[in-house]
TrEMBL record:
GO cellular component entries: membrane
Name of the protein described by the UniProt record: Uncharacterized metallophosphoesterase Cj0846
Domain of life: Bacteria
Membrane-crossing segments per the record: 9-29
Length: 280
């Protein structure tokens, strides 16, 4: 009797719950995003394929991080860039270690830290830095790396929470300013997108960042992101490609990152992403 009386209402509730579950599952499926640039002065005999990985937060992507590794092996990047928060201050390190241990076998891999690595105790931060070195990944805080057989230079800066952000930026931009007459393509690898106005003071051709987590929730075609750390509600740089009509026509890529089970609030219409940038 009770079931017959509320049958329609219960069916509606069940359908609504199933839809919510389906949306959450879809919103956590890995997405591969490709950007291609052929007008930034790149010079080489072949295209340069760069993978950008940010905000893993030591989350799980299959046994041995298979889902990420398979995508990387399929794309065969020439360089892999790690844009911070690969480790997490609350999550076990295992999944991050599993990924990093395999990356240098795919391509030379370069790392800058994020705020969550800097929220670790000093002892754990030092432990993580040691792990990264052991895995064969290069830490490029305040360093500029030339990609062999190309005119590309990659500049890395550490996270502001580590205290060396301004120093790192000065070091790499001093080098960059000295190189401006050499016809290089300059790429900045940084964790924080909210400092874009500062980055634009320098002649970077491409800037790559993470941290925003895609705004966590999105409303497709309406709102690109609802909330991002250090940008607040409706962040201007939640995720995607932003192009500036400045002297260098700077391309600004903000990855939506890979954090899933580490977040308090589930992703909504905001799939975790693995980014590839092709220079042609």
């Amino acid at each position: 009797m009770f079931f017959n009386k509320y049958k329609k209402a219960m069916i509606r509730i069940l359908i609504a719950l199933l839809m919510i579950v389906a949306i959450i599952i879809y919103s956590n499926l890995l997405k591969v995003v490709d950007y291609k640039f052929d007008n930034i002065g790149y010079q080489s005999d072949k295209a340069l394929n760069i993978a950008l990985i940010t905000d893993l937060h030591a989350c799980y992507y299959g046994d041995n991080q298979k889902w990420l590794i398979d995508s990387l092996k399929q794309k065969q990047p020439d360089v892999i860039l790690l844009g911070g928060d690969i480790y997490d201050d609350k999550m076990p390190f295992d999944n991050a270690d599993e990924l990093l241990s395999q990356l240098p076998n795919i391509a030379p891999t370069y790392y800058v830290d994020g705020n969550h690595e800097n929220w670790l105790s000093q002892a754990d931060y030092n432990k993580v830095m040691g792990k990264i070195h052991t895995h064969g990944v290069s830490i490029i805080h305040g360093k500029s790396i030339s990609v062999p057989n190309t005119n590309v230079v990659i500049h890395g800066i550490s996270d502001p929470d580590g205290g060396a952000f301004d120093t790192d930026l000065k070091i790499v931009t001093d080098k960059l300013n000295n190189d401006t007459g050499k016809n290089h393509v300059h790429i900045l690898l940084t964790h924080r997108p909210e400092h874009i106005d500062t980055y634009l003071n320098y002649p970077f051709d491409i800037i790559m960042a993470g941290h925003a987590h895609g705004g966590q929730w999105r409303v497709p075609f309406v709102i690109n992101g609802v909330y991002a750390p250090n940008q607040g509600l409706f962040p201007k740089y939640a995720g995607g490609l932003y192009e500036f009509a400045n002297e260098h026509n700077t391309k600004f890529i903000v990855s939506r990152g890979l954090a899933r089970e580490s977040t308090r609030v589930p992703r909504l219409f905001n799939r975790p992403e693995l980014v590839f940038v092709s220079l042609e």
